[in-house]
Amino acid sequence: MRVSPFSLLPPCWRQVQQSAVLVRAAALDLAILAGHLFLYPTGIVQERRHVLAGDTPQLPTEGRSRPPVLLLHGFIDNRSVFVLLRRSLARNGWPHVESLNYSPLTWDIRAAADILGRHVEEICARTGHREVDIVGHSLGGLIARYYIQRLGGDRRVRVLVTLGTPHSGTTVVPPLSAHPIIRQMRPESDIINELREAAPGCRTRFISFWSDLDRLMMPVDSAQLHHPDLIAHNVRVNGVGHLALPVHPAVATGIRQALEVEEDALGASGSVSVA
Question: How many Cβ atoms sit within 10 Å of the Cβ of residue 52?
């Protein structure tokens, strides 16, 4: 049996080590927050779509190129959070990546999921692909999951990658429960309970990245996805906070790998360290 060297340290030294990890993660999150606040205005406006010339529908492109990737941000955020991830995907062979801004005034996950569904249909019609892949950060992952499980989106979404998404609900920051969306992200909410219901035959593959230092997920394992009817795999990220998940280079590498791995190679749910 392999023994961690930290387990051999006296308890006081283990606490020091854990505190140092927490401080580094908090410092990284603060730095990312500062950079994101600077970029935030650039992502407020919905991005322009590439309109196809003429009215002739495009032929299916499966087998000739990777499916489009749609990026979906979290609560009170916008597409600017994905600047680095988009660059990473574009540089590594994903020709079609775009983001969807849902309104910060959105008060219902079901309504946001319906908007997402209409947008996915538009992407498929515009690009000729029958399916898309989705990467959702935090609330964005929950919106995408609701679309897939409850609105028939599994016929359109090949892979859903979630980053710090409260799949079983989070109890963090109770005062924010005045907002309906926050209440829907609480454990035992109607939305969370709906997502626990049976989903037989769901075709989408789910890859959930969760962090051991995600302070917005309480408990932290609430960002793991466990459902008997879903093809789900959980990827543990060590030493990275909630805000760092969409921008961390190791996570970006993991996302690219998740979008490339075939279902048979993915295996059952597990936990893997990528950082």
Answer: 13
